[in-house]
Amino acid sequence: MKNLKYLFAMLIAITATSCVEDPIMESTAPPVIGSDLKLNEIMSKDVNDGPDWIEVYNMSGDDIDISGYILNDKDVADGGFEIPAGTIIKGNGFYVVDENESGIKVSSGGEDVSLSKPDKTVIDWTRTPDMSNDVGLTWAREIDGDGDWMISNPTPGASNGSVENVPPILDADPLTEFTEVYEVTASDADGIASVKLVIMIAGGVQSVDMALVDGKYKASVPRGKVGDVVKYYVVATDNTGLASYYPEDGTNNPAEFMVAGGLEEVNFAGTEAGNRGEVTFTVTPYYPSQVDEIRLYYLEDGELQDDVNDDKHKVVLAKNGEVYEGVIPEQNTNDVISYYLRVEYLDGTKTYFPMEEKDADGNVISDFNHDYGTTWPSYTVEEKSYNPVVDTTVNYTEGPLTSVVFPSNPVPGTDINVVLAYSTTDVVAEARIYFDVGDNPVYDKKNKVKGEDDASFTQTGVTINLKDVVAESGLAIGETGNKTSFYVRIATEDASGNAIAEYYYGSDGKMYVDETPGGGSKDESDAFKANPAIWNVLTVQ
């Protein structure tokens, strides 16, 4: 029988670390009343996370009703699983219950397991060892119902004496080109002698020893070149010389994959949300040392790419270390822009984003086909919009100004009509908005927009047109992401046309007055002009 024996006396002294739910039990063996019913085999770490299970053996030749008997992952009955009514275990037979029915999850790090009578008297008990490196094996008696416990190949519902010397249990997933560290599980009751990854690239063969780390056998994967076909298999050998393979017939029919390459990471965004303005693509390729060039292709709204039309535009991405970057220029609102990326390697191999798949005859079978623009990914250019004036608390209760109204969502490229309303108590001679664009605005008397003079300024409002480009200054107002700082100035005069005062309004809720306009004195308006922090701010999104 295959085994690595664990002596019962030694088990009592073992202190292991639980890796599942239950804390490790450090108690000594509980009092056990003799019985013909015995714990016989326990699975605590099955392959592919299969459910744990516990087996009970009837040593007598008579059938026994075990209704109400209690199984537990502790050394007492309290809180355990009560075997259902009407459960009969035949003479010299077995009763197996798994985790899905019992709710008992035996820690793979080692744990007490007990069997008790309905009156909670413990009639059998064992402590499982750390099974975290023995996936698919069980903790079992050498002889059914008697003898030493040991690590064994599983025999649920059958005699432990029926177990044969079998190859290791090997569990593996497919290896891919992007796997840097490959890992498998391998276990055997006689112990594992070796686990190897055999990999074949470009006519060469490498045998890589896999090391046991945290319960799994692991190895770094040799890298191939883009376009290489990589074949591989895993072989696990136990201490008796028996071996298991993945794939099952790996020496004759190894698994394989092609090194396709492509892009490991793709990010793109406009200067603001909604793909307004330039859209920048930042990409990181697989195998950067093998990359010759990365291109971005795109179609503007209404352009075509197919068997007849070839309207696509090309952008060669600039390289910065292992990262590449390229830009699609700003497009019009509501335009649909289609695109794809192409990576060309030094040997001429090309791969695409999105990935393009072909069959053995070279026919494209994926949804994406770089020859047909209707299959390319796309984005829609959203409309630019303006925030309302941010942090504006203009005092509208003093002086002639009563309100400042911006359009709710003006469209860049057209007039931005700002309506100033004022009282008729004073004669308004002039209304202006002074502004500057950028993060560090300064006062410049050239940067102004005047209200349209209706000769008298006695009406209740005046419209000032802020255009995207103001001819007097050449500054762009309203471009995506720009901040435009501004303030309002209202000048008043008497009935004879003599200047009375100038009133300045910003975002701090105060009104600043120049009572001697044109007089050259240093009044509070000079301080206001010199402090852009209290001007209003218009931000384009």
Give a structural overview.
Helix content is 3%, strand content 41%. By secondary structure, it is mainly β. The chain has four domains: 4-162, Immunoglobulin-like (Sandwich); 169-258, Immunoglobulin-like, CATH 2.60.40.10; 263-380, Immunoglobulin-like; 401-539, Immunoglobulin-like (Sandwich), CATH 2.60.40. The strands form nine sheets. It has a six-stranded antiparallel sheet with strand order 1-12-11-2-3-8. Strands 33, 34, 36, 37, 38 and 39 form a six-stranded antiparallel sheet that branches. Strands 15, 16, 19, 20 and 21 form a five-stranded antiparallel sheet that branches.
Any key phrases for this structure?
Immunoglobulin-like, 541 residues, six-stranded antiparallel beta sheet, 39 strands, disordered N terminus, elongated, mainly beta
Name of the CATH architecture of the largest domain? Sandwich
* Count of individual beta strands: 39
Could you tell me the CATH topology label of the largest domain: Immunoglobulin-like
Number of helices: 3
- Structurally, the number of domains stands at 4
What kind of sheet is the major sheet? 6 strands, antiparallel
What oligomeric assembly is this protein in? single chain
Q: Roughly what is the average pLDDT, rounded to an integer? A: 82
Task: Return the CATH class of the largest domain.
Answer: Mainly Beta
Poorly predicted tracts of residues? 1-27, 388-392, 454-458
Q: Helical amount among residues, as a percent range?
A: under 10%
How big a fraction of the residues is strand? 35-45%
Please state the structural category: mainly beta
What is the gyration radius calculated from CA atoms?
40 Å
How far is the first residue's CA from the last residue's CA?
76 Å
